[in-house]
Amino acid sequence: MRVVLLLVVCLCWQAVVNAQTQVSGRVTDKAGKPVPGASVGIKDSYDGATSDSTGHYRFTTEEKGVQQVVVSCIGYQLWEQPLTVEGAALVLDIKLKEQPSELKAVVVTAGSFEASDSKRTTVLNSIDVATTASANADITAAIRTLPGTQQVGEKEGLFIRGGSGEEAKVFIDGTLVNNYFYSAVPDISQRGRFSPFIFKGTVFSSGGYSALYGQALSGALILETIDLPERTEASLGISSVGLSGGYQYLNKKKTFSGGASYAYTNLLPYFALVKQRVDYFKVPAYHGADANFRWKTSKTGLLKFYGTFQANRLGIRTADIDSASLKNAFGLKNHNLYGNLSWREKLGDDWHIYLGSSFSTNRDDIQNQLQNRQNEQQDIDGLPWNIKTFDALVKGSLTQVKAVLERKFGGLTAFRFGGEYQYFHDDLSYTDTLNRHNIINDHFKAAFAEADIYVTNNLAAKIGTRVEHSSLLDKANLVPRVSLAYRLGKLGQASLAYGIFYQKPEKTQLVIDPGLSYTRASHYIANFQKVTATRTLRIEAFYKKYEDLVKTYPALNNNGYGYAKGVELFWRDRKTVKYVDYWVSYSFLDTKRDYLNYPYSLTPNFAAKHTASLVVKRFITNWKTQVNASYSFATGRPYYGFRYNAGASKYEVFDQGDTPPYNNLSLSINYLPNIGKQNSKTFVVWVLSVNNVLNQQQLYNYNYSYNGLIRQPVRPPANQFFFIGCFFSFGVDRSQDIINSNL
Amino acid sequence: MKKSLLLIAVVLLTVGSFAQSAKYSTAMKTQIDQLAAAFGNNGFPALANNFERIGDAEKTQWLPYYYAAYATVMSALIEQNHSKTDAIADKAEALIGKAESLAGAPNSELYVIKSMIATAHLQVDPQNRWMQYGQVSADNIEKAKQADPTNPRPVYLEGQSKFFTPEAFGGGKAVAKPIFEKALTMFSDFKPAGELYPTWGKESTEYFLSQCK
Lengths: 743, 213
Description:
The complex is a heterodimer of chains A (743) and B (213).
Chain A (H helix, E strand, L loop, with lengths): L1 H16 L3 E9 L9 E4 L5 E3 L5 E6 L3 E8 L6 E7 L4 E2 L2 E3 L15 E5 L9 H5 L8 H5 L24 E5 L2 E3 L21 E7 L13 E7 L7 E7 L2 E9 L5 E11 L1 H6 L5 E17 L6 E18 L7 E21 L3 E21 L18 E19 L5 E18 L3 E22 L2 E12 L4 E14 L3 E12 L3 H6 L6 E13 L3 E17 L5 E17 L6 E15 L15 E11 L4 E10 L3 E8 L4 E9 L3 E10 L10 E10 L9 E4 L6 E4 L6 E10 L4 H7 L2
Parallel strand pairs in A: 1-7, 1-8, 10-13
Antiparallel strand pairs in A: 1-4, 2-3, 2-5, 5-6, 9-12, 10-11, 12-13, 14-15, 14-39, 15-16, 16-17, 17-18, 18-19, 19-20, 20-21, 21-22, 22-23, 23-24, 24-25, 25-26, 26-27, 27-28, 28-29, 29-30, 30-31, 31-32, 32-35, 33-34, 35-36, 36-39, 37-38
Chain B lengths: L1 H34 L2 H4 L2 H15 L4 H16 L3 H22 L4 H17 L1 H22 L4 H13 L8 H17 L12 H10 L2
């Protein structure tokens, strides 16, 4: 009985103890705007509530004494404060601080286009690259539909904002790629050596790029290879220009993958069907083999290797410009080996380490001959004919290592620093009427530091510096790189960037005069950008100042200079027209420079004043087909005939003008017949593409005869290019992916 | 007397701990009962907060975090403003991670939520994300089926996926219908492992089945 009584007393006592206290108030952000959906509660108890659309909350608690109030909300920092709870109703207003987050924070974007598969907000990604109609799966060709680039068809390279093709460099997994493009052929631009499908991320910078990179006056294309593939698969491709096959293995634990592939390209059947302007006495043929492995060395560590070996040859014969009956035959054999090994790992909670290394060696074996009508070698004394027959053997290798350490601070603020070492070894032999053989070596070292500073979610700065030294030039340089980004309204942001960029003169110039110094460019960029999930608007204005450019007369010197300024526009929209994704880019460029053999400051022949591109893509579900179109336009580029005036010992312009405008409409169709087939283990893509559908005449430049009396237009080898191919992958059921994409 | 005191102490302790677990299951049941109604009034964020508070206070139970993750991913899936979806889905991911570490090992119900989280990410930009998230979502449906072949929820999710897929891609109502029918049978036979264990999905399956006619 007594026990029961006690029990009753106890329970009553508990009830008394459990008397409730009401807590209420309002949750706001720093600006005083209500924060709905915030969880307000007493720590280690069930008691709490969620703020409503006006930020108000109310709950009751049975707890007593000093309690910890915890407030959490997505996008805001955790809020905690002790509170004495005694039974009387309490009012507690809470101000939350925004959580710096990658999704909401401003990003420093001046000058750069990020195209990555890993980040959630991107301008372009690798599928976009592969499905741009005019590109034929060449990365730089797709990049040419972005603002800031020129439609140059007679020479490889990215011609960015009044810069020449040599002024843009390509980096793979952090390290410089020495021979990104297939070796140069006179008046015919070459593709990049690397398939877009080995990369998961692309950053295209048309100026003001990070201090982690250097030696590019105009811009950088920064590519990141894929991590582990999705699964084991074999692939096979057959197209109008060749065959390819590969195998990629992934272990069950998804910690290791390895693979190899081989591709053979031969244009013989294609050239038999589609007439070319130039006479190919050796039809272009390419062998390419690659191998890779990726190994998860720990939960956070990844070791990646990618290597490729390529061998190719071609020979073209064109009419000799200095004589009516003679021909000029150019033959090229190229071997290229490239390997890249990189490792990244997290050290503790705050540190990241990145180590990269690469080795490449390239060999161009060039034979040029002056030939008669019977295609036999013809020797004629006297300029210009006696130097038209020559042999050149150009060998070059690049060995490099790079290390970057990154320390992350609260939020997105980070500090990174590191260094790189590059060893360039170039061996050039050239024989015409004389024998010349030169070997040049350069030990190039750089150290860099960079900080990402997030003052708030609305204001960010990237401040960096870089110091470089070249043993060949025996000169060092130190440069600043600064950019700022400020958020305007909910979706807009404004950015500013400034930086100084140095670049070594070309090796063909250094061979003649190793006493040359760095060329130099200063970039000033202002940018406005507005991004939603389905639309992107960018407007960018820039001013670029060139100093110490290389001039080739009276002797090699660094007295060249120039400027470039312009405005660019980019608009991408996936919303307005249903099922259609399109982007438009426009560039206005005003540039002049005095370099090489220019007699005075001129707009270079690779710079058009107005350039525009429209790219449209649409997937037609019922046909299982994606249709892509692109249209590029550029106003005429200037051309010049230069003649050396021995009396005045300088070059003079004896002819000049503008080429006709450039127009190119391209179409491509991707047909995916196996989409949605139940349990299909084979995935097939048919690709059909036509470059320059309207067969518009394209004229890039003029070549002049030695005496200046004859000029020949520089045109593409054929107006149009047709491609048909079929690509299979086995052991993969991708239909599920596509099904899910339509959820 | 001493004996009585001891007895009292024991009784008090027992009552106390019994009261505690009763409090837990009562609180959980109250919240779980509100989940069905949350579709209509978007009560998911508030319920997610309540479940998370219970999980934080209990410290050893995985079910509160499981339900917190479920309510969070549901609010991500019905969020109309796609610029918010990723952050909400990330929150659900963090919660399901807590549930998984408390459960000790992944189980069928956890895979179900993981599949839904991937679907939420996918919804933001299907065209560009299907390669990554479509795969994750499908993989987790498979894992959920393997971990518990009697669980009807992965089957329901599979039916839903087919339902929203165009016929040209091997989806459509006709394809989805038998899957929903299978899921419905499985729901009738399904025995939850305990009274607080997940049972949701039957009403939605019935709804989709009615739409398949």
